[in-house]
Specification:
Number of domains: 1
Largest sheet: 7 strands, antiparallel
Strand content: over 45%
CATH architecture: Beta Barrel
Oligomer: single chain
Strand order of the largest sheet: 2-1-7-6-5-4-3
Structural class: mainly beta
Helix content: 10-25%
CATH class: Mainly Beta
Shape: globular
Number of strands: 7
Distance between the termini: 40 Å
Radius of gyration: 15 Å
Number of helices: 1
């Protein structure tokens, strides 16, 4: 159980550290409250949602937690109007995790999803965010 929890936590934190530098996305810059929940089919226990705050801008529009994970590379990213998509590959204990994410902004809110595959295990992280105001 500890190994599963550690692996899932590592994957979850990884998703929260993604930064993409690319064209502007349609959104309002500012301080955002972000909620994230990991879904793993067949997992006997449900992981609790996580909330955090972050300043997001049109140039830095992917939600990230302050935890830092390494060995991840964005293979591709795209911005189409208010939607940011990306594919990322990470090395974790000698295994490659492939993640495909999509976040769609609507001025002061967003919805997003990241799908990850590793060793035949598929996971989905659901995200939502709302703008609280200006960054401090």
């Amino acid at each position: 159980m500890f190994v599963w929890t550690k692996t899932l936590l590592t994957i979850f934190l990884f998703f929260m550290t993604v930064i993409i530098s690319s064209a502007d996305v349609t959104m309002n810059d500012g301080l955002w409250e972000i909620s994230s929940k990991m879904e793993v089919p067949g997992m006997p226990m449900e992981m609790p949602p996580v909330k955090f705050k972050q300043c997001l801008t049109s140039k830095d529009s992917i939600p990230q937690n302050k935890n830092d994970l390494h060995n991840c590379k964005i293979k591709s990213s795209d911005i189409n109007g208010s939607t940011v998509t990306w594919e990322m590959h990470c090395m974790n204990d000698g295994q490659t995790m492939i993640s495909k994410g999509k976040t769609t902004y609507s001025n002061d809110t967003f919805k997003g999803e990241v799908k990850t595959a590793m060793n035949g295990m598929n996971m989905t992280q659901h995200m939502s965010g709302r703008r609280l105001g200006n960054c401090k």
